[in-house]
Amino acid sequence: MSRIRNFISSMVYNLKTTVIRFPLTIVFLASLSTVMFLIIEDYSSLDIDLLSRYMFAGIFGALLATAVRFMLERFEGLKNSFLFYGLTILLTAGYYYFLTNDEFSNKMFIHLLVISFALFAAYLFLPSSKNAVNFGNVALAHFKASFTSLLYGIVLYIGIAAIIGAIDILLYDIDYKSYAHAANIIFIFFTPLYYLSLLPKFNSTDKNDDAKKEISFIYPKFLDILVSYITIPLITAFTAVLIIYFIKILASGVWPVGQVGPMVLGYSAAGYFIYILSSNLNNKFSVLYRKLFPLVLIPLVVMQMVSSYIRIDAYGITESRYYVVLFGIFSIVCALVLIFTKKKNSNTIVLLSAIFALISIIPPVDAFTVSKNSQERRLTEILNRNNMIVDGEIVKRADISTDDMYEITNISNYMQGMGYLDDMDWFPDKYADNYYGNFRNIYGFEQYYDTGYPGREETLYLNAMLNENEKINIENYDMFFKTYIHNKREPDAELGEFTLKGKNYAIKQIFDEKGYITITVSDDSNTLIEIPMKEFIDGLFEKANEPKGLMDQETLTIETQNDELKVKLLINDINVDKSDPEDIYIYANIYVFVAVQ
Q1: Is the preceding omega at residue 581 within 30 degrees of 0, hence cis?
Q2: Which of 49, 368, 399, 586 has the fewest CB atoms within 10 Å, counting from its CB?
Q3: What is the average per-residue pLDDT within 269-283?
Q4: Is the dihedral of CA 578, 580, 584, 589 positive or negative?
């Protein structure tokens, strides 16, 4: 009992000192937890979009306040902490007003991710700036603190969730939102607070702080084994695979265009993470890894950059491709620094990562401006090539090639999703509120998605949707309902049940060994109607050279009847993948109309 009591008292003491050490961070964490409470409760009078903006600003404020605290501890000459805390509040308010919007967007989310990463890298780097503290020890302390706090948080949540469940089952009903509230308090407030409480004052010379630093800087034996004898051999084997693939590419002269970028990016990120974790290890595996990893990384990243260039040359720059290229440049710069500098200080990695992250959100070289300009040039070039822009206004045409239809559809949808399309001079403002419903009115053809692999005439993929602007006629049917078919469900999955004129019916799906679905309608004893989907799907694929995307009801309708029932299936949307003819993928949402004869 005394050991438990000592553990609890030590935890309480650490939490108290953490509140004093990181006061503004705790305020932001408490505000985040409060906002999340309101979001969970979902009060009708509250603006969820406004609360989401508060959440984004609160995350930024918490990370900035933490970075400021480490800066004040590193540079003791900065005495006026209230001034810096005031600037933190002002910058957080500026983030709220200038970098968040009333509606959630990908741009807003990516900005938060990038800025959060830069702030985390900054407060990871600050204690070791100018080699004041060994960065390997700082990184180790953060790793141990984050792992421990997350583990405690998960265990605590599982325990509280079990207690809530037991009370709900055995004693009295508890609101299901209680689980979300428990997760909110534990993971948004307690876990970050406990993480901060485990971090020592890295730049303090106080004897009491030295004891905590010594504990934080102890390299656990299990982590030593994990890094030295498991992760390093694994990443070495993965490196060998990439090198062999690299040699294969050089021999064949055929460069990959899609799969290499993310793979090498993940390899580089994992490699640098292991480099940092192993920076204080002196066994042969770790020392050899730190010597060879930067050397091996450079040609592999160059291969990734060539692959990315091919992709960008064909399809232009998007935010994801921008960050793949930027990370490739970062990886090469870091590798060169680690190769040619005498002091192989791994804090260079986090410093450079923070710098590159900030570059990616500063106009005019930020990811969004570069991507917008690239895709705008591509779309404008295709439209001009087809004489679809005259005197600054768009001219509708349906007689262009399917390749250009496909490109216009994808680029235009991307720009609409990112909010760029409204800035185009030729875009008709009257269609801004219903872009997808008016796609044909803008360009003169329906959205087109069909494309195959180069050199392959057969279309292997199908994506079609019902034109929602058309009214659905339900006359002559007794009832209708919506369901879905999917050949990755169980073979005899029930799609729905209904009762008409006192008789019970069930609709099921069955599929053959290749994946083609047949829909059946049965009563309690017999199968009354069978509707094979293969002929319908083959009919859609026969129109592979026609524009697809939004389709009319007639094209997406299947009707059948007998003496007892009349059934109509109206496809709302369908996706089919025939790339493996022995294992076809089918998914569709359908409206089922039924009438008794």
Answers
A1: no
A2: 399
A3: 93
A4: negative
